[in-house]
Design a protein that fits this description.
mainly beta, eight-stranded antiparallel sheet, two-stranded antiparallel ribbon, disordered C terminus
């Protein structure tokens, strides 16, 4: 069960702490040893939290997603195989996620600026729940015993419509 703790600090930003815990199980759902292909599935759980909400892009904030509680329960399915010099992997997972964030001062390090903030002095507390999922594919070709060529494509999305597209 991977878990980690981190202390985050920097210049002109409020310090923070982070706790991550992940656990999961998986099993082979189908395997063809002759064709060198496997399908695996399982159940994954992720939890992390931060001491402070540092999501804002203002003086003293960190500008990173830092909920006071986040968890996700996902069901992954992976198909991988090997044929001659080709190797591939296709992974998708879907499930449920929830997070909540406390209210945060716009200027947590500056007592002079914080009272002068226009209107509301803090970013309000937030929480959201919903479906989550992602898909990742990778293909690799072995050119020589010491060199390969490959490509990876990943897309992640949440119910709120946020998407990440990576290609490298």
């Amino acid at each position: 069960m991977p878990r980690s703790f981190a202390y985050l600090d920097g210049t002109h930003v409020v310090s923070n702490t982070e706790l991550d815990v992940e656990a999961g199980v998986n099993a082979i759902a189908w395997q063809d040893k002759e064709k060198r292909q496997t399908v695996r599935t399982g159940l994954d759980f992720s939890y992390y939290d931060y001491h402070r909400n540092s999501y804002l892009f203002s003086w003293g904030q960190g500008g990173y997603f830092s909920p006071q509680g986040y968890y996700a329960i996902m069901v992954p399915v992976t198909w991988q195989g090997h044929y001659n010099r080709w190797t591939w992997l296709l992974r998708g997972e879907g499930g449920f996620q929830h997070y909540h964030s406390d209210a945060a001062d716009y200027f947590p390090l500056n007592d002079g600026l914080q009272p002068k903030a226009q209107g509301i002095k803090t970013e309000g507390a937030q929480s959201a729940s919903g479906a989550a999922g992602n898909v990742m594919g990778r293909v690799v070709y072995q050119i020589t015993p010491c060199s390969v060529w490959g490509h990876k494509l990943a897309i992640a999305g949440q119910e709120a419509g946020q998407k990440l597209l990576e290609c490298f």
